[in-house]
Amino acid sequence: MGRKITFELGPAAIGLIAVAAIVGYLLGSTYPFANSRDPESAALDDGPTASAPPTVETAGYGPSDIKRWATEIGLDSNQFDSCFDSQKYLEQIELEYAQGLDVQISATPSFLIGNHDSGFTIMTGAQTFEVFKSRIDSYLYGTAPPMQVELTADPIGNSTFIGNRDAEVMIIEFSDFQCPFCRAFYTNTFPQIEIEYLDTGKAVLVYKEFPLTSIHPGAVDYGMATKCAGEQGKWREMHDKIFDEQNKLGIATIPYA
Description:
With 257 residues, this protein is of the alpha/beta class. The protein has a single domain, classed as 3-Layer(aba) Sandwich (Glutaredoxin), CATH 3.40.30. 42% of the residues lie in helices and 14% in strands. The strands form two sheets. Strands 3-2-6-7-5 form a five-stranded mixed β-sheet, sandwiched between helices. A two-stranded parallel ribbon has the order 1-4. α1 crosses α4 (90-102) and α7 packs antiparallel against α8.
């Protein structure tokens, strides 16, 4: 029997966030998040992952670039800027981070895959499509592995999701927009998952922010940018834009000034 998790803001997560907030304040950090493990050294559960290219030094992007991207993808700039500057979705990002802590997520990208009947299992790293297919199909065809996590509350809540909310299989992704392996998943694996499982209604992907800000100082701002874009129906466009900027520069981690 796996761990039973309410997937709400539990006492353990609140305590960890409080400690992180105090440490962050003392160190001059803007946001109360801290990483527990470098994603570049994350152990992989199920198989090989694409290697990320080396990071290069650049001047970095900043809020003005994010606002420029918002205009480029067709957002109302006044509405977006107001949302972004007010940090409207910071509490939602804190909640999603806490949910990750509740299920012992410590690296990005990490995934919970399963459903309420069979429970969920954890997968870590930018695995190949074949690895994801094997795990997803096991829930579709009654051969699911032993449960690691049981979720007793709605995992979606106010988080962004792609696909049919009532699909048989749920993929919960904990991600960070400055994580090179998150980009590798988006570039190499996600397109096939979308075609075979999300577009067909077999699975739903729930996207949750898990910013590792001690090594990725822009992760929260990038996350807030996507949520603000979502107010105008363009979460996906901003999500893609941020990762595409990494591809355009040919670097592992999108910089932040």
